Amino acid sequence: MNVAVVGTGYVGLVAGACLAETGNRVVCVDIDREKVEALRRGEIPIYEPGLEELVKRNVEAGRLSFTTDLASAVKPARVAFIAVGTPPDEDGSADLQHVLAVARDIGRAMEKETVVVTKSTVPVGTAQRVREAVEAETAVPVHVCSNPEFLKEGAAVDDFMKPDRVVVGVDHPAAEEALRELYAPFLRTGNALMVMDIPSAEITKYAANAMLATRISFMNAIAGLCERTGADVDKVRQGIGSDARIGSAFLFPGAGYGGSCFPKDVKALIRTSRELGAPSAILEAVEAVNEAQKQLLLSRVVRRFGGDLSGRTFAVWGLAFKPNTDDMREAPSRVTIEGLLERGAKVVAHDPEAIHEARRVFGDRIAYSKREYDSLDGADALIIHTEWLPYRRPDFAEMKSRMAQPILFDGRNLYAPAMMAGHGFEYYSIGRPV
Ligand code: UGA
């Protein structure tokens, strides 16, 4: 099948490469000329395991190509995906200007019946607006479809190749038929293609992310309770997670959730609920708990060292919002580091993949080290923000010998408190007895 994918961000690029892998002819479109040139050379702008090889292989096989010319990609396509960004507006709602501009461009380019699919996360009613935008530019029949993406950064290729489910919102059999054909190779293990009406598909995406964010904020609230009662949130997590109705995934407390999805999607759903005259107390609480949680490590540091941190040095391990990505969007590490800098501290950071992103965010306001242990020289404390694998079993003796004082603030509960006491560390984690 001929497929056009507009937007080569992480959703568009993964979808395009995976659809090419199953034999389709996919043309990915982006307005950024430099990015397109780089992609043609096989250079991937993001760190995503497995993506580079996938792109290279499919480009070489002639199934995957990149262009800035949207019309040339859309003309032969039976299905055109819109996978451009929907950054939050100032009021928290999703900014649809790019989605609708692409819809108009598709309308101008189309020469035959085309299925236009929204893959970007868009509020309820967007598919209808996309239809209107396309139809305003052409008399050729268009079928719109909402096909939300459930990829996790760091596991995106795997998630696309082996999805738990594929959700497709349609209002015309032609759209359903095209999407069934396209996704059949990914659903061979019997995982469902769920066909539903368009508004339900649009809400499903937000509801999934909001539900996951709710579990995290809920566990962060429980962690706070554990700290005040001497309970251990790890035990509580296992205790409740073994109930099949609850399940054990996504119950890890931490320094707040970050990334390009949860914060943006929860905010957008809050905004939509307000606009519809039905403000959501639960979503507002999820967001408020998370904002507070992002301050937690900083407030612990301040409680331990006082408000004036000048002359102090802090090592930070992990800058990305989670492991296996270089993405620092809405990363809780940013809140901690900004707070440390405001109070006059010196910060030395390590991250296996996100240092180039960190340089963009902090420039030379902080120092960077290539090896995690080098960041510890003379540090008053270490703050851990991301559970990268190499941090899980470090050499505590080396850490201690390099630090000015063996103090560790752990935002991911990587180590057992008793073990840390044994190693002679003053150790603070989330929701567990000190
Ligand atoms: C999330 C969803 O998990 C995907 O299903 C969805 O497709 C994606 O958003 C999207 O909308 O595009 P992602 O943002 O890549 O994926 O990251 P997650 O692995 O979900 O982690 C999000 C945040 O939650 C991270 O900051 C992580 O540290 C935090 N988290 C996760 C916790 O604090 N505790 C947990 O138990 C799990």
UniProtKB/TrEMBL annotation:
<dbReference type="Pfam" id="PF03720">
    <property type="entry name" value="UDPG_MGDP_dh_C"/>
</dbReference>
<comment type="pathway">
    <text>Nucleotide-sugar biosynthesis; UDP-alpha-D-glucuronate biosynthesis; UDP-alpha-D-glucuronate from UDP-alpha-D-glucose: step 1/1.</text>
</comment>
<dbReference type="Pfam" id="PF00984">
    <property type="entry name" value="UDPG_MGDP_dh"/>
</dbReference>
<keyword id="KW-0520">NAD</keyword>
<dbReference type="InterPro" id="IPR014026">
    <property type="entry name" value="UDP-Glc/GDP-Man_DH_dimer"/>
</dbReference>
<keyword id="KW-0560">Oxidoreductase</keyword>
<dbReference type="Pfam" id="PF03721">
    <property type="entry name" value="UDPG_MGDP_dh_N"/>
</dbReference>
<dbReference type="InterPro" id="IPR017476">
    <property type="entry name" value="UDP-Glc/GDP-Man"/>
</dbReference>
<dbReference type="InterPro" id="IPR014027">
    <property type="entry name" value="UDP-Glc/GDP-Man_DH_C"/>
</dbReference>
<dbReference type="InterPro" id="IPR008927">
    <property type="entry name" value="6-PGluconate_DH-like_C_sf"/>
</dbReference>
<dbReference type="InterPro" id="IPR036291">
    <property type="entry name" value="NAD(P)-bd_dom_sf"/>
</dbReference>
<dbReference type="InterPro" id="IPR036220">
    <property type="entry name" value="UDP-Glc/GDP-Man_DH_C_sf"/>
</dbReference>
<protein>
    <recommendedName>
        <fullName>UDP-glucose 6-dehydrogenase</fullName>
        <ecNumber>1.1.1.22</ecNumber>
    </recommendedName>
</protein>
<feature type="domain" description="UDP-glucose/GDP-mannose dehydrogenase C-terminal">
    <location>
        <begin position="315"/>
        <end position="417"/>
    </location>
</feature>
<dbReference type="InterPro" id="IPR001732">
    <property type="entry name" value="UDP-Glc/GDP-Man_DH_N"/>
</dbReference>
<dbReference type="InterPro" id="IPR028357">
    <property type="entry name" value="UDPglc_DH_bac"/>
</dbReference>
<comment type="similarity">
    <text>Belongs to the UDP-glucose/GDP-mannose dehydrogenase family.</text>
</comment>
<dbReference type="GO" id="GO:0016491">
    <property type="term" value="F:oxidoreductase activity"/>
</dbReference>
